[in-house]
Amino acid sequence: MISMMAAAGLALSTIVIPPVADPPPPGQITIDVVTVNGSGCRAGTAAVAVSPDNKAFTVTYSDYLAQVGPESRPTDFRKNCQLNLKVNVPGGFTYGIAQADYRGFAHLERGAKGTQKASYYFQGMSDNDQRSKTWNGALSDSWQVTHRTDVASIIYHPCGAKRNFNINTELRVDKGTSDPKKTSFMAMDSTDGSIETIYHFAWKKCPR
């Protein structure tokens, strides 16, 4: 019979300790916006900023709103944005995205619904982590979606490669059975910069 102490040691030996991301690199990380495309982020309506501690960066939109209703155009029910970013990283480091926080405001009449979709990937690599969430009316409130990735599943920028970071987002509103005389909308924008999409970095040192 295995003693209690031996059994405890055997149990501990089977515990898998997940990998831990490295601390952020020194110095200030910068991000260049290479291209901006989409009806939800017309030229001059999207801005990117890196946090002082290099742990995250934010994307702020000022005109990202999808809507249906009597004064809406036929194409207003869907808005999207594609950002192509060059993240300038110190030599010897690479990064991935551990978490993304999306925020906005929605007013959905009873019978209507709104959907938020998002994905991100490195240039030349597959866009295989698409996620979406749908809200049903009646609703008139702020909304938030958080996409988390386990540390062991984070995809990192290949060390030594030059690949930009792509972000695709979409807002869609379906009037459904709601009153056609009333407007429903979903926004991921803010005129005062208080609503931001936050992407949390995961850092790792490249092998020498």
Record the SSE blueprint:
Layout: H1 4-13, E1 30-37, E2 46-50, E3 56-61, E4 65-68, E5 78-88, E6 93-108, E7 113-122, E8 131-136, E9 139-148, E10 165-174, E11 184-187, E12 197-205
Antiparallel strand pairs: 1-5, 2-3, 3-12, 4-11, 5-10, 6-9, 6-11, 6-12, 7-8, 7-10
Organism: Lentzea albidocapillata
Pfam families: DUF4360
Protein name: DUF4360 domain-containing protein
**Rg, please?**
21 Å
Estimate what percentage of residues fall within beta strands: over 45%
What fold name goes in the CATH topology slot? Jelly Rolls
Return the structural class: mainly beta
> DSSP helix count?
1
Low-confidence stretches: 1-19
- Terminal residue distance: 48 Å
Main beta sheet: 7 strands, antiparallel
The count of strands amounts to 12
Outline type: elongated
Count of the separate structural domains: 1
